[in-house]
Amino acid sequence: MDFQALWLTLQLAIATTAILLVAALPLAWWITRGHSAPRALAQAIVALPLVLPPTVLGYYLLIAMGPLTAPGRLLIRLFGHPLAFSFTGLLIGSVLYSLPFAVQPLVAGFSSVDAGYVEASAGLGAAPATTFWRVVMPLTRASLLTSAVLAFTHTVGEFGVVLMIGGNIPGATRTLSISLYDQVQDFNYAAANRTALLLLVISLVALLLIYLLPSLRKTDGRQADIVR
Amino acid sequence: MSASQSAHSPASLLSVNIRHHVGSLALDVAFELIKPWTVLFGPSGSGKTTLLRTIQGFVQPGTGRIARGNTVLFDSSSRLIVPPHLRPIRSAAQTARLFPHMTVRSNAVYGSGWTTKPQDGMATAEQIMALFRIQHLADRMPADLSGGERQRASVARAVVAAITSGSPDQRPLLLLDEPFSGLDAALRDDLLAELRAWLVQWHVPVLSVTHDVGEAFQLGAEVIKLAEGRITQQGPVESVLAEERLRLMTQLRD
After folding, report:
1. How far is CA B178 from CA A127, B93, B186, B192, in A?
2. Which of A20, A74, B87, B121 is deepest in the core (most CB within 10 A)?
3. E strands, A91-168, where?
4. Closest to A138 (Cβ–Cβ): which among B84, B101, B157?
5. pTM for this one?
């Protein structure tokens, strides 16, 4: 078992999930609150990693972070080293790659909150931020959990982006999925079996978490206050 | 025009002059709110709810001006739109819309936290819950209430928000959309009398929507009669709704 890869994968997945939750909340709320053209564009860009081959995203990130472009040279000066083939570079790639998995459950959750509650809150004098934290968020806890679990699991399982911008550096960029690929290349099927099983278990447990916690959905806005 | 108007009528609680088209409804109204409890009366589809939503700021009228005293809340000519939560107005919609994840008590106290101390808000909420006969339900969740109980809790929540905001000489205007439609007559009559006394004591003006002639009479309210988006009459209930009352009493006799 490649424990170094396991540890790196967990670090990457935790950091990615944390960043995504902070970034996805305001983004998803903004997308939910209207249908104007900039919002449609934002939604399309957010959803792009779902349809784009991961290698394409990885390629553009590699170029953007490398010394061939102005932003790349700026990043190199800022960090003191190229971001490509580093953990930071990998983290940026992971955040972008898993963005739709964090944003879309939240958009679905926010959309399911009855607009009447948002209006009721404003009609009681609550500022939009207060309404968001005290009314919208508590009613969408299940979506928040889904968002976090999917972002985490998807990061654990990413391969193409990691290979393009991370390469295969033990302790820095070699994640479990890359390790599995290596093991198969080496015809080390015993190790590959263990790695594959571990990835399978992580994914299954994460999904079970989403489906096994229906108690979190009890206070979902869709169910309550139907009777007038 | 409007500036001189408000200068000549300092007693105006709310000044509305708007035109708004939505679907088949063409709202075209101008009125001054003078009496502390005014009732909007009219058949369904006459634009009562749309008018309330416009005053709170959930609907932006095509053109016009809305002002509360010297504070302009909406003015199409200067493109001024004050967002709903910043208007000196509190409201309860026709549907209860209690926050489903909060107890009745948490709902009741929700709108009091912005300017008052939490303990003051809580004390007021307890008093108002008692007034609305829902204090025994304070720890229940909205899903466990009956329709009538929800409606009372919803109105109570708006009342708490109104009397804990602003200063004694400038409380928010309270907008109530059919606040007592789901209540039986006896309870409604008791509640109305007590609530009226409370709101007078706390200097909270009310604009409420009703279908109910009896309710308007019991309040002794000023009535604004709305038909097809236009105001057909404004004045004391005895003169504006005399015809409706007569019809109602004839029906009762038959």
Report:
1. 25, 8, 17, 12
2. A20
3. none
4. B101
5. 0.83
